[in-house]
Amino acid sequence: MRLVHESDRERRTLATEVETADSFLSKARGLMFRRSIPDDYALVFRFDGVATRDVHMVFVPFPLDVLWLRDGEVVRKERLSPWTGIAKAEADRLIELPAGSADAVAVGDEVRVVA
């Protein structure tokens, strides 16, 4: 799987190592307790519908770029700092990436997981 970013200007791959968090436990754990993640990594949280989705950085020792999506469209983008970062927005999908991976992504762009 790949995570692809599409904007008016271009289409590019954000990550080639994509993991999904579908179970309650995998969503609750997220990236906590990991020491690092690869540069081309993304963790995708899939939800059944749109609701307020929050992200905290407790026990995450590295910064992340986080994208909140609604029907594939980016509705919020945030860089969260290690240990203390927290943010929330309404979304049906949430994506966590290494800090800097989403620099070219803007609200209104499309982000999709493709096989």
TrEMBL record:
InterPro entries: DUF192 (IPR003795), Saro_0823-like_sf (IPR038695). Pfam families: DUF192 (PF02643). It comes from the Archaea. This is DUF192 domain-containing protein.
